[in-house]
Amino acid sequence: MSRSILCGLFFSIFLVGINNAQVKAPAPYGPVPSKNQMRWQEMEYYAFVHFSLNTYTDQSWGYGNEDVKLFNPENLDCRQWARICKQAGMKGIIITAKHHCGFCLWPSKYTEYSVKNAPWKNGKGDIVREMADACKEYGLKLGIYLSPWDRNHPDYGKPEYITYFRNQLTELLTNYGPIFEVWFDGANGGSGYYGGANENRKIDRTTYYDWSNTYKMIRKLQPNIVIWNDGGDRGDLRWVGTEAGFVGETNWSLLNATGEVSWNMLHYGLEDGNAWVPAEVNTSIRPEWFYHPSENERVKTVPHLMETYYNSIGRNGSLLLNFPIDTRGLIHGNDEKAALAFGDAVKNAFAVNLALKRKATASNVRGNAKQFAAVMAIDGNKNTYWATDDNLKQASLTIDFGKPTKFNRFLVQEYIRLGQRVKSFTVEAWVDGNWKELAKATTVGYKRILRFPAVTATKVRFNITDAKSCPVISNIGIYNAPQILTPPSIIRNQNGEINIIPADKESELYYTMDGSVPTLKSKKYTGSIATKGKVQISAMAYEPASRKSSPVTHEKFDIPRKSWKLIGINDEKANAILDGDPSTAWHQSKDKKMPVDLVIDLGKEETLSGFRYLPDQNIWNPGIISNYEFYISNDNAEWKLADSGEFSNIKNNPLWQVKSFSPVKARYIKLRALRNIDGNDEIGYAEVDVITK
Ligand code: FUL
């Protein structure tokens, strides 16, 4: 090569270099995450562990008078918890240092209601310490749940309690090393033991806790922490308005720094919010947060957990998945199995990024500069990004696989350090010489994952159809996730007929009724199964084409409700309460005033040992009972109280409520609603059932 050509080449490389350096990165648009929020966001997936006196009383919320002597786990092993979380792909663990009952898992100086008075380790134990050590050993971060509501403390509701609360926080935030997140639940149901007062205490959650001074203290003690708060002042993270494991498809990581937060704002964020408050999706691996032996067969299946994954991490949220610690002090084997299988399923789904380092072109590249080129979105480096010229609100990026490639997932990430910008986008594939739309969606944020039926194509086009400001995309991934079969659902109607309903019409269904796990040799389901008396049933779906089986659904049914009658109700629709279908509900007419009674004739005398209530399952439908009395009678005239109490946490987690009492014979039952969660007179029921001996 001649000297002059070489000189020219160097000169032009030099020029391009200068040009590139001169093209400025986009300026941040709107609120952006703090360093702590960014560090937290990149964790994506971490655990909750719920463990307290409730574990030994089979309760969801302790009242605050439970005996500390009940707390004696025989095999408590925080290293087991940490090992499972680590193997499952989680990055940290948040422990319920104190739940609403006030019992402390660490030997707090400020109360006697803690492990220091429990038989466990002769009062010398400290679970928060063991958790901190185990997290350190397994390379996990530690988080703290400290319930602001304390049903044990005599001062709860008075100003003195705030000092107590801050003293406890100080202990937790100074003695256990770095804490990545602190969790303040908003629940404060009113009633409690309160040092023996046994009364209702009301606080104004927006003023009582004086959060702003508490926050200052927290940030001083733990400068790298993020604060989750559902109880008043805006923290660093927000709740998503449900504990069922999903955030809105549209999910802005923004809220307003002050002012009321509606359910919609929690669930979808606020497009024009003036503060960065990203979403954390919290849900449990079982229906409830604390351990209940009756839920051992109700651990969520891999398809269920994958659904949660796509609806949380795949929708610009983080996933906080709870393990109820069992009475031994361990994560139950069924939960471990499910969590590890879920971790593997996530790994398998995203094992091969088909877009990585392929060819990519864009409709516009910021200043034509290399550092903002399309390939920066598929270079496997989260710190580089594709960006367009300022003020462009539409742009597209095309990835060329170079050969026909099969895929069913599209993942995209914005470089959120510069703000959340994308308002809507589509994904297309080049199939048979045409662009075919595969999916259409709204926001992106830190991470968005779209699912669609597998397609084979040579090229993929990502079209941003609207944005607040020029798009800044740090990563695109394309994957071919293995298919996972969803287990069927099982319901029994009022006549006692069992129906097994597949999630996917193509699959065959197999079932057993003796408690064994169904196989392809079990009975094949061909239509309703007539049953009498108490039954159990286990069913699975099987897809002949892929030869895949689903996980197994187990259901247990008590006596059929064939001869049951609702008394004093002249509305046919009320039969929704007895139809066995959780998706149908009936509401008592609004002119009724609390207490509201539902009376049922069981048709004949039965030996009852409990009852079950399922509130209306449509999200945020009114009429969810929070406090009840349950009466029995033999003649529908003279009634005896069999049980009374609260349905703890039913507002956030409106699941089947199961209550037991000493066996008693009766033909008539009366569920009396004393209060609902909204403090008005409406009452709704999806189902009411009994438990017989
Ligand atoms: C809820 C609490 O009331 C539950 O008991 C649980 O701790 C959950 C994580 O938050 O609102």
TrEMBL record:
The stretch of residues making up the signal peptide is 1-21
Q: What is its EC number?
A: 3.2.1.51
Its BP terms in the Gene Ontology are: fucose metabolic process; glycoside catabolic process
State a single Gene Ontology molecular function.
Answer: alpha-L-fucosidase activity
* Domain F5/8 type C intervals: 343-481, 541-693
What does the entry list under GO cellular component? lysosome
Q: Which UniProt keywords apply?
A: Glycosidase, Hydrolase, Signal
Pfam families assigned: Alpha_L_fucos (PF01120), F5_F8_type_C (PF00754), Fn3_assoc (PF13287)
InterPro entries, per this entry? FA58C, Fn3_assoc_repeat, Galactose-bd-like_sf, GH, Glyco_hydro_29, Glyco_hydro_29_N
List the Gene3D superfamilies hit by this protein, alphabetically.
Galactose-binding domain-like, Glycosidases
Q: Name the family.
A: Belongs to the glycosyl hydrolase 29 family.
Name the PANTHER family for this protein.
ALPHA-L-FUCOSIDASE, ALPHA-L-FUCOSIDASE-RELATED
Please identify the protein, giving its name as recorded: alpha-L-fucosidase
Which organism does this sequence originate in? Answer: Paraflavisolibacter caeni
